[in-house]
Amino acid sequence: MKQLSFHGILVNMAFTDRGYPEKFEHFAKKISGDWIIYGVEISRNNLEEAIADIQRHMRRDDLFYNHLYDDEELIVIFVDRIFRVQTHASSWGEIIDYGLASNIPVEQLDFWPNRFQDEKHYFS
Questions:
Q1: Residue 1: is its pLDDT beyond 70?
Q2: Best CA proximity match to 99, nearest among 74, 65, 75, 60
Q3: How confident is the model at residue 2 (pLDDT cuts 50, 70, 90)?
Q4: DSSP-assigned states of every residue in the chain
Q5: Which of 4, 8, 85, 109 has the fewest CB atoms within 10 Å around its CB?
Q6: In terms of pLDDT, which residue wins out, 1 or 13?
Q7: What percent of the chain has pLDDT over 90?
Q8: Under 8 Å CB-to-CB from 78, ≥6 apart: which residues?
Q9: What is the pLDDT of residues 41-84, one digit of tens each?
Q10: Cα gap 21→44, rounded to integer Å
């Protein structure tokens, strides 16, 4: 059964207004220095609008990504590109190639968490 919502990981540093992720309903927050990582919930009915809005508010002067997921689909949002793949890492080749070509370190291209069950560990 499909979830009624997607969850996502939004990083404050990825946005022109670092407070932008606060506009979403969030279920968790992780703070590391200046970096705030938000666990957000987005209704499946508003998914396409939310993706476009996230992309529109992302910084253009440095490359970041944010990602959304349910237990089957992973959506990775860069300022100039959106990827839709499965949550299993075997489907991520094109995204990883894109990220590496954009000078994002490979260890940052793990898109974790990307399933609901992984969130508790990630945000603990």
A1: no
A2: 65
A3: low
A4: ---SEEEEEEEGGGBSSTTGGGGSEEEEEEEETTEEEEEEEEEGGGHHHHHHHHHHHB-SSS--EEEEE-SSEEEEEETTEEEEEESSGGG-HHHHHHHHHTT--GGG------SGGGHHHHH-
A5: 4
A6: 13
A7: 94
A8: 55, 58, 63, 64, 65, 98, 102
A9: 999 999 999 999 999 999 999 889 999 999 899 999 999 999 99
A10: 18
Among candidate residues 57, 66, 49, 65, the one with its CA nearest the CA of residue 7: 66
Given a contact cutoff of 8 angstroms between Cβ atoms, the answer to whether 84 and 111 are in contact is no
Six-digit token string for 9: 């990981």
Rounded Cα gap, residues 40 and 21, in angstroms? 8
